[in-house]
Request: fold
Amino acid sequence: MTEQNNKDVSQAAPQFEINCSRQFVAWLIEQNISLCFSTYQSGKVFLLGHNEQKSLSVFERTFERAMGLWSDGETLLMSNLYHLHRFNNTLGAGQDADGYDRLYVPRLSHITGDIDVHDLALGADGKPVFINTLFSCLATVSDTHSFKPLWQPSFISDLQPEDRCHLNGLAMKDGAPAYVTAISTTNVNEGWREHRQSGGVVIDIESNEIVGDGFSMPHSPRWHNGKLWLANSGTGEFGWVDLASGKFEPVVFCPGYIRGAAFHGNFAILGLSRPRDNKTFNGLALDERLEKEQIAARSGLVVVDLTTGGIPHSLNAEGFISELYDVVVLPGVKRPSMIGFKNDQIRRVLSIE
Reply:
């Protein structure tokens, strides 16, 4: 049974359906977590938890081209078409609002312009850092401009709105940006499009050196338990990079285009998308692997046991949801909710510091 909140969705919106594996909700309860994921083309943010009947609770809000996410359970960052939003939980310990134990309310929005913000995080200094894909750099917010550049790959000669290498992924380590992924090392306008099969790289930010190459559309690098994990999205594989040799060690094949990764203990939660029918996604090794396995690409989430490489739990999204971008864990959260901008609720939710 799936519970949905559609208060800010037009009655004419296409139908969708979310189905989870039999033990998915039990796993959320056991781990004492909820999940949040963003959908790129359909412009949605979904919050997954459980209600008192121990059924799946699905709460959604609409944000045009919702992409990067970051959260520690109390604060939630999200990038969309030309904003970077910060939401804060307004409920105290033991409080609830209509049965929800978290209510994320927008408190601060930076207008970045359409710079195609991908992965983002909150740094140790409390300021957001993000991948500015259009300008091929790592950046932070500015009080007076669209963004403030912090770093760029050594092969990018100057900052131009040209998406030269499709810089996309960010791995934080000890509260600071540590590694990034890019589809290629090209330095011309959208040059990455000709290097989708094997041009992908991982770059160490501190040294500005390439520590892994030969990837196909790499995304979502994450530092976890002393290893650098990432999605080799063009092949449908998720694994880790041996930083001494640069070799990629795949752990699991997933039936979809992997984009978005979060960790909880010895589990990885990955976002899967159905590849778009265009030149960006056609011709990748993922297509051949799916055909070999005699399965179609899926959209949704998979939970990977990092010890066994198995997928004990999953969630499938059908209908208009075909592309996920990011997923985050909400630790210690049972049933989250969120205030959006599409109705009058934001006018009436008030709090005092």
Observations:
- The helical segments are 24-31, 285-293, 345-348.
